[in-house]
Amino acid sequence: MRDLTRRQVLGFGGAFGLLAATGLAAAATLSRRPPVTGAELRSAVPLPPAFQVPLPLPQVLKPVAPGRYEITQRVAEAEILPGIRTPLWTYGGTFPGPTIESRRGQAITVTHRNELPVPTVVHLHGGRTPADSDGYPTDLVLPRDWADHHAMPDPRAVRTHLTRDYTFPLDQRPALLWYHDHRMDFTAPAIWRGLAGLHIVRDDAEEALGLPSGARELPLMIADRAFAADGTLDYPSVDATLRDRPGVRESFLGGVLGDVILVNGAPWPVHEVDAARYRLRILNASNARHYELEALTDAGRRLPLVQIGADQGLLAAPVTHATLPIGPAERYDVVVDFAGVPVGSRVRLVNRLGSGRTAEVMAFVVARRARDDSRVPPVLSTDLPSWGPPARVREFSFRAGQANGGHGWLVDGSPFDPARTDVTVPLGDVEVWRLVADVHHPIHLHVAGFRVLSRGGRPPLPHDAGLKDTVSLRPGEAMEIVTRFDGHRGRYLFHCHNAEHEDMGMMANLEVV
């Protein structure tokens, strides 16, 4: 981003001062469910009643040749709210984009063609990906007739016109990943407009466990949005074209929240289920909204959420939750057993952090009795990494602060600069990172999965189990994570995945050498 533009974007001292003060106050009175960071947009169209629209299931993308896929990024319209057509930026004409299903250790190449009016970048979130396919924010795919781009100068950027091949080795544990736009300064509005899709990695060992599968395995991409009076997606960009000036209006600098909860692109949908176990593969694809999920029957009985996986695949053993918090970009694999619910009854998936309409997510209607041969074994995985002593310990702060004459979202007091190397790590080294937050910050590390060692000097919480790539820091919280950088050499990122924070400077460069 040019300095002048960054000053324009970050010159909102009052709002950031309030956010910093809020974070400090929260640090002193940290509760189990702290306030969510961000401001909510209110839709200007009538919203449909909950649990009327059937849950869509994203189509699975077919390869054009063995190991090769093609996706065209283009503008399309969809009926998200009943009777209203909404223009979107899409992968392949749908929101969410098509799901890619792949096998562990079998490399694939995805060719993306950009027919949108702006540059794009594709990041496979959670992928152990070579740096040239990881989706660095300045590695732009330029659209036709794009004469200029307005991003911070980066001599290492690799730009292409119209198309780019992204190669993913997929030498990693089976897991639910997702792909989304990662363009410098404009990630948040691009995801909001529809540039997100799922990618599932599978292997034989996981499939042999007997977990719910087929029609009883449901991918659930949860995202909030708001709608303008003309049916378009409302978003408070300072430049609605997303061509020149990045950033959002002052009151939304903490993050943008919508008042409509979408699951797989449908508002508060409903899905018929058998009286059996179901595997719910949940992604929080919201820009800034946090959720605390709970499954409740019509009679008010809470169904256990049996967590079997995290961002980077299966846990060692199941963990049972009454409620499950999930921050932006986190994924959880849970099994819900509907066997004890009377046929004809409804089970609501609710959000304990929401209010009004945002307290509801979706519903399941138990339609029939059915045979269920699935199981949740006591041992799920034996391949979780166990790393030796760390070569070094680092500390990083994620806070609001001064930047270029204004206020910004900063890592260690500095806004993002692609020309600066913030961290250099030798390939294969084990490191412990201590992460410190002022307000809510979901922190994402590219290329390497990690394990949570502690929160606030205490043991990890139950939902911190397993191998993760994104972790939700609560206001005033410090957390320790451990990882080994054994994937690939090159330039990568770590950043806040509150997408508005990310666009306004809360990213840093990681060089694996």
Description:
- Helix content is 8%, strand content 40%.
- It is built from 5 helices and 35 strands.
- The chain has helices at 3-10, 13-28, 187-192, 204-207, 499-503, and strands at residues 39-40, 68-78, 86-91, 97-103, 108-114, 122-125, 141-142, 160-161, 163-168, 175-181, 196-202, 217-225, 256-257, 260-263, 266-267, 270-274, 277-284, 291-297, 302-303, 305-310, 313-321, 324-326, 331-337, 346-351, 360-368, 392-403, 406-411, 423-425, 430-437, 441-445, 450-455, 470-473, 478-484, 490-496, 507-512.
- It has a 7-stranded mixed β-sheet with strand order 15-14-12-17-23-20-21, with no helix packed on it. Strands 16, 18, 19, 22, 24 and 25 form a 6-stranded mixed β-sheet that branches.
- A hairpin with a 2-residue loop joins strand 20 (305-310) and strand 21.
- The longest helix is centred in the first third of the chain and has 16 residues, at 13-28.
